[in-house]
Amino acid sequence: MSAFNPVVWFEIYADDLARARAFYETVLGVTLEPLPLPGGMDGFQMLAFPSTMENPGAGGTLCKMEGVPAGAGGTLIYFGCADCAVEAGRVEAAGGRLQRDKMSIGEYGNIALAFDTEGNMFGLHSME
After folding, report:
1. What end-to-end distance do the CA atoms of the chain give, in Å?
2. Are strands 97-104 and 9-13 parallel, antiparallel or unpaired?
3. pTM of the shown model
4. Is the pLDDT of residue 2 over 60?
5. Which pLDDT band holds residue 55 (cuts at 50, 70, 90)?
6. What is the pLDDT of residue 69?
7. Beta 97-104 vs 44-48: how paired, if at all?
8. 15-53 pLDDT, tens per residue?
9. DSSP strands (E only) in 1-128
10. CA 124 – CA 89 distance, rounded (Å)
11. Measured between alpha carbons, how far is 12 from 47 in angstroms, rounded to an integer?
């Protein structure tokens, strides 16, 4: 058994990177920054969510890649929150769609599910 959490990185694909950026910055109250890419990665753009190697949890990016469309059916990412109802309350105003309001998952806290502007479902998690 590994000593690490199972998720170490994530990529959320977007058809319209500027629209997706505005959505996640508004809902999560963060600023995404362009991630420099190594040479040979033409047709690929990444905007990084704030993260540091010293803190627990996974870092990741919004991505736009030629030939890779955004949408439902991919990996479901949960973003940590103090109270997921707060971020869930921002989803529709930011252009997304709330799938499920805050709900209890017992001793594991609470979650809410939503769709972003690109059709990707994501989760919000909090212990409160």
Report:
1. 29
2. unpaired
3. 0.77
4. no
5. confident
6. 83
7. unpaired
8. 999 999 999 999 999 999 998 877 767 778 999 999 887
9. 9-13, 33-34, 44-48, 59-65, 78-80, 97-104, 110-115, 121-126
10. 11
11. 10
> Which residue's structure tokens are 């939503």?
114
> Do residues 58 and 9 touch, judged by C-beta distance below 8 A?
yes
| Identity of the residue numbered 76 | L
- Residue 23 in tokens: 């959505």
Instruction: Give the 3-state secondary structure of residue 37.
Output: coil
* Phi, psi dihedrals of residue 74, rounded to the nearest 5°: -95, -155
In angstroms, the Cα distances linking 113 to 29, 48, 49, 101, 121 are 17, 22, 19, 7, 7
Residue 6: per-residue pLDDT: 65
Please give the full DSSP string across 44-74, using - where no structure is assigned: EEEEEPS--TTSSS-EEEEEEETTB---TTS
Which two structure tokens, joined as six digits, stand for 64? 């736009």
Model confidence over 67-117: pLDDT tens digits?
A: 788 887 667 889 989 999 999 999 999 999 999 999 898 888 999 999 999
